[in-house]
Amino acid sequence: MEHIGAEVWLVMAVTQVAEDILFQDSSSESSCIENSESEEDDLSAVVLSLLKEDHPKQTGYLAVVTLYSDRNFWRHLRVSRSTFNRMLHYLNVEEFRKEVCYHGGPEPLTINEMLLMTLQFLGNQGALRVFADKFGRTESTVHNAVGVVCQFFFDHQSNFIQMPRSRSDIIYAEAAFQKRSGFPGVVGALDGSHMTFHPKKENMKSYQNRLQYCSFVLMAIVQADRQFSYTFVGSPGKNHDSFIWKQSSLQQQLQLNCDLHFDSRKYHLIGDSAFPLTKWCIVPYKRTDGGGQLSRSKKLFNYKLSSTRIVVEQAFGDLKNRFRRTQDLHQSIDRAVNIVVTSCVLHNICIRNGDIKIDGNRAPANCNVNREIFNDPLRGSCNAGVLKRDMLCDQIQPQFHNRVRAFH
């Protein structure tokens, strides 16, 4: 009764205000009578616009999640139950949102609820209002919750995205890569992927790539098991991969002193022909390298390198297929970068937990969008890189022929 009485009082108050607005300039009783019908319509419109619409909210979704089968849990959240529990455990251990003050009103979000919201948001392309309705929360609440969780994982990315540094880690990484295609010395595969993005109109030209859509670049190094070991995110899509790589912190560290990361005489990264050839980054031969057609040994070298390097494109495809929000980002650039980095972190957690199920075809990796830009393929190559690549080419030949003899 008290609730009904308050609504009646509100209607009467709003009606009185509307009457004052509509009739304050009336000049005569006759004019009011002639326009009474239109004024009544206007009065109704004003009252309806000022009254707050009551939206019924769903309740009990958090209980519904617990009833999902393992398959449905994965389909909705894009991670397995055990992976979700591992993520939740990490948030609790790191005291995520340890100080939450409650001043009345709706109950504050639990960590469990915030993680569910974030995974639903990252794993699907649905509108924010859909998730808000599902969780029985306002759109702003879901928006803020996702932002807080993504910022947390962005700030803690170094705990999950790491280059192999110790001697044992480097040896393990090299062995895992060599097992794929027999290419020696690899400690990471390098490439860039374009993340479709919708910037403000005044910034569209800066983010427009060669294929005439707007994007920013996820530059990454990937391990043999498709885990990301380095990410550099946010450079406008119009920039070439080699330019973006040159601006990255890791490239600058390798340029100054590669041996702080790995011994460049034994180990190296591998990339495609968009990157400059150095002693610590090996790229394929081109037909113009030395003139004429490629020799049989160089073609074999390129085949081995490409068969090993493809793991980075597979990782990009897995990332976009699992966390489908990354396929088309309608966010500010800062929030979009946080979303992509968080997705890379969660991608690594999934792999470490054995959660590598990907349904359907992989999403397009969108690599090499701005690949063909330099006329000189040797631009940026160093003599040490050329010598090392030739040495690796000679090293691969007997390995290949020995395998062929063993097969026959």
Features:
five-stranded mixed β-sheet; alpha/beta; single chain; 408 residues; elongated
Mean pLDDT score: 85
Separation of the first and last Cα atoms? 91 Å
Number of strands: 5
- Trace the largest sheet across and list its strands: 3-2-1-4-5
Fraction of residues in β-strands = 5-15%
Radius of gyration: 29 Å
Major β-sheet annotation: 5 strands, mixed
Give the structural class: alpha/beta
Topology order in helix (H) and strand (E) letters = HHHHHHHHHHEHEEHHEEHHH
Percent helix, as a range, is: 40-55%
Identify the overall geometry.
Answer: elongated
Unreliable spans are 373-379, 404-408
Number of helices: 16
Topology of helices and strands:
Elements lengths: L1 H22 L5 H6 L1 H15 L10 H7 L2 H8 L3 H13 L17 H13 L4 H8 L3 H17 L11 H15 L4 E11 L7 H4 L7 E8 L5 E9 L4 H7 L1 H9 L10 E3 L10 E2 L13 H27 L10 H20 L30 H25 L1
Parallel strand pairs: 1-4, 4-5
Antiparallel strand pairs: 1-2, 2-3
Helix pairs in contact: 1-3, 7-9, 8-9, 9-15, 10-14, 14-16
Q: How would you describe this structure to a colleague?
A:
With 408 residues, the protein is an alpha/beta fold. It is built from 16 helices and five strands. A hairpin with a 5-residue loop joins strand 2 and strand 3.
Gist of the model:
The protein is an alpha/beta fold and 408 residues long. The protein contains 16 helices and five strands. Helices cover 53% and strands 8% of the residues.
